[in-house]
Design a protein that fits this description.
By secondary structure, the protein is an alpha+beta fold. Helix content is 37%, strand content 16%. It is built from nine helices and seven strands; from the N terminus they run E-H-E-H-E-H-H-H-H-E-H-E-E-H-E-H. Strands 1-7-2-5-6 form a five-stranded mixed sheet, with helices on both faces. Strand 5 and strand 6 form a beta hairpin.
């Protein structure tokens, strides 16, 4: 049994929208009891109002310094992205995590900064990191993601629900998923980013027949 990935095009979702209501509205005739509903983490965060405009931020000298040590493709490689993280996780917490991550690389251990830098370290999308008009904002990761996926599964009566952080660099990361589904298997199916990162307005994907696919893969 193969999985059919069905991207769902929506209108622009904003902080005035309830993410569960919107997903129900756009997928109720598509998502069945054997399917998994997946949603892009940035859109969940936007509907929760977890965004900030760069012109509303005061950029510290420490943020300007620390962002230099992040690879250019990362959202924290800009002063705004780094400042956003520091405001959520604390300036010195982030700074010491960055130092620890740098020392870790010297001895061959990678990813320690994102492990120690706080939950938002891997979730923040800097300016241009998400769909218009929010591409002019820094977007934090969603709050209470486990509650969101639980509410989606209950509302849609589907096999599972997942929030994923996917980009065009072939990276797909699980933010939250309901129990019972193989979240890594679902994440791997999203590796080509069917959501799109710009103006496509496809923040939702339905993985049709995922229950049967998961059972088949487990054999």
């Amino acid at each position: 049994m193969n999985v059919e990935i069905v991207p769902i095009t929506t209108r622009i979702l904003t902080p005035k929208d309830d993410i569960v209501d919107m997903i129900d509205r756009y997928t109720r005739r598509i998502c069945g009891e054997d399917d998994v509903i997946t949603v892009a983490e940035s859109v969940v965060a936007i509907t929760q109002g977890n965004i900030v405009r760069p012109d509303e931020m005061h950029i510290s000298g420490l943020a300007k310094f620390c962002c230099r040590f992040i690879p250019d493709y990362g959202s924290l490689a800009t002063p705004h992205g780094m400042q956003a993280l520091m405001e959520k996780e604390g300036e010195w917490h982030v700074t010491f995590a960055l130092i620890g991550g740098f020392l870790g690389k010297i001895i061959g251990q990678r990813g320690l900064f994102y492990k120690w830098g706080g939950r938002q370290a891997a979730l923040i999308d800097d300016v241009t990191g998400t769909m218009p008009p929010f591409d002019k904002c820094v977007v934090y990761g969603p709050e209470n993601p486990d509650q969101v996926v639980a509410a989606l599964k209950s509302r849609l009566n589907c096999f599972g629900a997942m929030i994923a952080d996917v980009n065009d660099l072939k990276r797909s990361r699980i933010v939250a998923a309901t129990p019972g589904m193989n979240a890594q298997l679902a994440s791997d199916l999203l590796i080509d980013n069917p959501f799109g990162n710009a103006s496509q307005k496809r923040p939702i994907c339905v993985l049709k027949n995922f229950r049967q696919y998961q059972e088949q893969q487990a054999k």
